[in-house]
Amino acid sequence: MAEFATCVGTVPVRKDADGKWELLMVKTPRMGWSFPMAEIEKDAKGAKQTAKKCTVSSVGATGKLGPKLGKWRFPAPRNQDVRFWVMYVDGELGEDDKRYDPPAKGQRGWFKVGQAKNRIMKIKDAECLEEHCDLLTKVREHLSALDSADDVAEDDASDVDDTEPIVGMVKFRECAGCVPVRKNAQSGKWEVLMVQSTGDDAIWVFPKGGVEPGEPAKVTALRETREEAGAIGKCGPKLGVWRFPQTRQQIKFFLLYVDDVFEATDSRWKERKKRQRMWLTFRAAKKLIKSVPKPDRRPELCDVLKAAAKPLKQIDAENRVPEEDTADDNADDDNVIEIDHDINDNNDDSDASA
Description:
Helix content is about 25%, strand content about 30%. By secondary structure, it is an alpha+beta fold. InterPro entries: DDP-like_NUDIX, NUDIX_hydrolase-like_dom_sf, NUDIX_hydrolase_CS, NUDIX_hydrolase_dom.
């Protein structure tokens, strides 16, 4: 089992001239915008002292600590357990103060809660994104409670509690997407629609996106397919749930029987200027997926493709028309496929027309 370093950090806060809460953040080339944190050294006097010290050095802020917000686990490659406290800032050090020793090329800045969230969503380490979003939610709840009580919380008496549950240990970002398919009128073979990754135009993927709070996964999948691929149709069966421990994502994929694709000028296809789309036979799609060099190859896409082929073969065998699937989005969600493998030859014969 991997060992996790014991770290601490703060979310420095203050009220501006209008009585609105602001958060102090630090920007580094590696992480982007986040909050001060540091590993507890062996000779440190305590977790709280380390938290205060790292806040002074990284963002040049002093103040008193409020309640502990919780403990978050940041997985590999960071391997850190981080306890965060609120800090009520009562002073800031000047740029020339020797106690202010920010990371190389680091910056600091005050932001409203909404502005802070926008910066957190750009964190470069994907595995840290969800934990920071959880942390920000805790901060927002605490500040709202302070405003309701018209008071400032005092420092609690506790220090490190090793029995405290880890907030971010098993939380995965919920995503949903579609595998859009149609039958080629001339060949009679099933085709699949893929889109370019915005991060690398040499990589082709299936449309997907994050599930909004309270939103059914099917709604997310259909919306993302419309926006990313410019395709609409009837939602078929759920193909499965794929979990990615390294990026802390869990993706539900559905089959989509495409009824229409938007023209390149149609504004409903929102990402028409960001990515290309392409119809492929299942065999060609599999070949394209496997053509990407490691480590950028996406082996789970072959698994998704194979899962999509099964209901299509059944439709062909029964010579019936595809119908919309009305099953519960959450049915069989316990059957999760964890992705930790490379592509292998066991995924052969995904061609649904075979």
